[in-house]
User: What shape does this take?
Amino acid sequence: MALHLTSKRRLDDTVLERDLTLDGVPGILWTPASASAAAPVPLILLGHPPLGLHAMHPRLAARARHAAADGFATATIELPGCGDRPRWPALEQARADLGRAMRSGEPVGDDVIDALVLPLVDRAVPEWRSALDALLPLPEIDGPVGYSGGLISVGVRLAVAEPRVVAAGLFAGSFVPRVITEEARRVTIPLHVLLQWDDEGNDRQALLDLFDAFGSEEKTLHANMGGHTGVPHHAADAVAQFFTRHLR
Amino acid sequence: MALHLTSKRRLDDTVLERDLTLDGVPGILWTPASASAAAPVPLILLGHPPLGLHAMHPRLAARARHAAADGFATATIELPGCGDRPRWPALEQARADLGRAMRSGEPVGDDVIDALVLPLVDRAVPEWRSALDALLPLPEIDGPVGYSGGLISVGVRLAVAEPRVVAAGLFAGSFVPRVITEEARRVTIPLHVLLQWDDEGNDRQALLDLFDAFGSEEKTLHANMGGHTGVPHHAADAVAQFFTRHLR
Assistant: This one.
């Protein structure tokens, strides 16, 4: 897979931000300014909801800064059918169906969740694995690799399928297909799961069932208040401590 | 309530441990060696299961050392009917009934839980409040006050009834009467709740229902693996960080 680093800028004196494309898939790479071939740093893949990298950039950059301060490079790529990538009619349809189901006030059916999430996971995970192939040879980056954030279903599939990912900090804030909860039983890496307890868009019981299903001997659930986007600072600090324990 | 400090020893160079009695109730007070009238420290009450202070001493002393390193005094008192305190036939009976119910393999009934826990809470909480009356005037101790540990039902009642307790780190590792879950709706102080996810003695759903019931705007649940006594080090560190945020 061809990696092109297309532009670069310093977020501040400590973090270098570079746009990239991987066979046409846009993404972003952040590295601590101190990272070098002589002092390479571990990599954390930053997962995100399917809202497009432009919209997500402020929050992704904040997470990247936090990680860089702990000595980690971070990278992300656009999800299929999102942002500047070609429209994907099946995804648009599945989104519309989910929106309609949620507005109806009825529980969202498994078929609606499956139709939205499973094709995204099936397409995205090979791309994230290819991103690892392309990024790990960079001189300033070295293993091991972590995955941090949502979509949690992408994180689960990566944790099962990608042996280079040795720890995952998962944001439990999206609908989870049952087949993903079944896959979770095969996850064995250390996990740190964030759940916003009062996130009205969550199916909390399904997310607790997912946490219960994970096969990992070391798994931690941190549930907090503050709604979907209100993760408290101390919870972000705890994620950072998790990755410091497992990637350094 | 008459406080008598009956003996003292240094646990190491940094923590002073003193036995105490409060109107005949035995207890222990730990203070950082650096605490003084000129530099008084906040107090954390250390809750514990009804197994007697002698049996619990190693784990209580470890928690006291951790707290002292963060600049906190800690204190605990014996629960009614436990340790060196006079036998309490109703408590003995309730314990025996619980043991029999658990050995039967059937779900433990509400009546068994109520009979064991509610009288303990009713008797213990006024004693813990009296302990505060006696301990807070000591020159090396100053408010605010935290409560840390189990019995979680004692912590809930204290959080509702005792305005000097401004933050609680609760160990969700014991049976909870339904009336306590109802009381939890009136708790408003910041809470940090520890749950051992794979604690086979836990009624996990009842403890999640309790967490859900708490009325506090700021509440955090940390669930980990490792069984009832296997709280990982990072989880103990997170409790310490919680108290540092709220008591300093």
